[in-house]
Structure formats: structure tokens, C-alpha cells
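DATA CLASS: polypeptide
GOAL: derive C-alpha cells

***
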Amino acid sequence: MDYTYESDTTILDDERVSLDIWGWQDSEIQPMQLKNKGREERFSYLATIDLKTDKITQLADLDVKNVSLESKIERDFGLAWTDAPYRINYSWDIQTGRDLYLVDFKDGTRTLIEKDASGFPSISPEGKYVYWYDGRDSSWVTYDVAQKVKINLTKGLSEVFYEELHDSPSLPGSYGSAGWLAEDEAFLVYDRFDIWKIDPKNPSGAINLTQGAGRKSNTIFRRQDLDREERSIDPKGQLLLTAFN
């Protein structure tokens, strides 16, 4: 069908009417939709191909679009997430939640880890745990892949692990972590000053490796990592630390 207005070449481009329609239930406000339009049109969905059978398995789809890959893939599962159910909240709260999944690279099946999670997860070196900092709960948490249970690592400890000097109207972040011991035996995490060793199987038995000396003397202890290829920390080795007062 020919529309006279559309085909009229005497009308200049800046004289043509442009209409963008937005509804209050849209997940993004109109300027954000226009800004992201090109990216959404070019979006690709991660898949795998078995070179022996030529079977293609789609890992991401419209429901869960994001699949995170480790820099060196050594296991047959990864992490997937979506913030679609909470995206509309972004208009007034940039710290939106996301649903976290484990995705099987062989068949694409997904296992829900956490709904509306606050944090960005990672996989421990041996793949026994998924871990992240929960900003809403101000705690480090892990998900036991084999047992399929969530474990709060720091909630029961006397010290706090959020940024104590955080002074903006948003959830405070963490002080980070030093890494995992070999075989995923324990996780080394920082508070404002000290370093804690926490076994996910026994969080209440956490050990303050720096024995509280950091907080007592206002000294920040942090592990100095000299090997960028290191997968995990040797529990029989030494921890080289920096100290800053």
C-alpha cells in the first residue's frame, strides 16, 4: 500500500513527524530503549557445538540471555543470569537484582541458583561452589553445586564485611577477597582491615588469619598475588601480605 505522506519527496526529513510509543509497563524508559536499540538488534545468543556429533546446543535464549564464560573453561557448566523480571526497577534503583542459573554446556539445561540475587557470581577454582557478595545482606555467600544449597559465609561473624566508609545513597560494596585455597577447602575474604579464612562447610569456624591485628592498629592487610596464572592458594605455602596504615 502506498502512503502519500511517506512517498512525498518534497517533505524534508526534519519536517517529518516521528512518533515513539512508550507504555508505563515497559521494562525500560523510552530514551533507554532508543539508546539500546542497536545493541538489541545485534544481540547474539551463546551456543555450543559438539565437534564429534555436530550437535548444536543453545545456552542462551530470550528468557535467559546472558551466559558468563570463565577466561579458561575447564568444566562442563557455566553461569547464566537474567535481570528481565526486575529491569523496570532500574528507572529508580540502579542496583537491580538478577536470577542466577547454572547452565549445562552439554544439553543447555539450567538449574536455578538464586532468584533476585544482589551480586555478580563467580565459580570457585574446582567448581564446587558459586560465590558472590550479597549487597542487600552485606554478606559473602556460596552455593554448593553438589548439594544445591546456599550458604551464608559471614553473617554469623562478629565483624562486618561491607565498606564501612560508604557514604552514598546506595548499597555498600565489599572489600573483596584473596581467593580460594586448593581443592576449594576455604575462601579467604577481607574485612576493612583483616583477612578471614572461611570453610563453606563450617562458616561458624572462620579464622581471622591476621588475628585482628589490622583493626587494632588501623592497618589494612591484603594478600600480594605474584602469580597471575595461579588457580588457588597453596595452604602449605606462605601468604605474602601488604600492610597499609
Summary: The longest strand covers residues 110-117. The chain is about 10% helix and 30% strand. The helical segments are 4-7, 30-41, 213-217. The mean pLDDT is 92.
